[in-house]
Design brief:
alpha+beta, Nuclear Transport Factor 2, Chain: A, globular
Length: 139
């Protein structure tokens, strides 16, 4: 009878390990989203608003609407200077992963707090910005 208890215990440990294995990942799950955000902010720094608008997913606004919005932000806030990640949240949904990255951003005229919402589908075919919320007294 003691052998049966040892086998059962071993079986339970094995099952627990197998159930936890899919949750293990190498690297930071936020790293890819941060890389997209850094390229987006680099485009803003270069005043290449067309390239910056290319980081947005189709849906909420058209590329032309994003381009116009980014130009309005530039006119009101001034040239982009720096950004610093202050918070990152990752949510896994059935269709993929949604990232919420909050940045403290310094512009020439006014500082801003910006939250970028990015989505990566299960297929990992793309990682694009769905929306950006810019909060600043300059707007």
């Amino acid at each position: 009878m003691p052998r049966a208890g040892i086998r059962l215990r071993g079986f339970i440990v094995l099952c627990a390990c197998l159930l936890l294995l899919p949750g293990c990942e190498t690297g930071s799950p936020v790293a890819d989203a941060q890389a997209v955000a850094e390229r987006y902010y680099q485009a803003l720094k270069n005043k290449d608003f067309e390239a910056a608008s290319g980081f947005f997913a189709a849906g909420l606004k058209s590329p032309d609407q994003w381009l116009q919005q980014l130009e309005v932000y530039h006119d009101k806030l001034g040239d982009f200077e720096t950004s610093r990640l202050t918070n990152a949240v990752v949510n896994t949904v059935f269709s993929g992963r949604r990232y919420s990255l909050t940045y403290a951003v310094k512009y020439a005229k006014f500082p801003a707090t910006e939250t970028l919402i990015l989505f990566e589908p299960v297929s990992k075919e793309s990682l694009l910005i769905e929306n950006v919320v810019v909060m600043s007294r300059g707007l």
